[in-house]
Design a protein that fits this description.
Layout (H helix, E strand, L loop, with lengths): L10 H5 L19 H44 L6 H13 L7 E5 L11 E9 L16 E9 L5
Antiparallel strand pairs: 1-2, 2-3
Helix pairs in contact: 2-3
Length: about 160
Amino acid sequence: MTTHTQDFALAPNLRRANAFGKPLGSKPRTDRRGAAVVEFAVVAPIFLLLVLGMIEFGRVLMVQQMLINASREGARVAVLDGATTGDVESTVDDYLDGSSISAANVTVTPDPPSNAGFGDPVTVRVTLPFDQVSWLPSPMYLSGYMITAESVMRRETVQ
């Protein structure tokens, strides 16, 4: 039976290297001190722009969904017998007030909705300028953009 003995004279070199093979105890390069600052200065504005854009896009989608729900609630009131345009507008405004959304324009067709016959469509359209819901100063290419939602339901009457 033979026993192998290991020469530990070579092992210290292996033990002093890091995971990348660089010997421990070597000094870092000092000529790259400003590289991180320059890289951050280049990347930070782009990253901030992307994050703010995602927040603003999410806000627009949320407001769009709120307008859809408000137009649906207004249409549910509009198809009932004896409904007036004022009833529909107050229903839509009450729904949007819960979300702190104001200045929405409500259009009911036909006006008043009681002019529609049994089974005729009644349309409630809710529009809101993008400037009213934006959390950021809106750029000039979105200044005239309108967020719109529309619901159509059939008129009901009591016979």
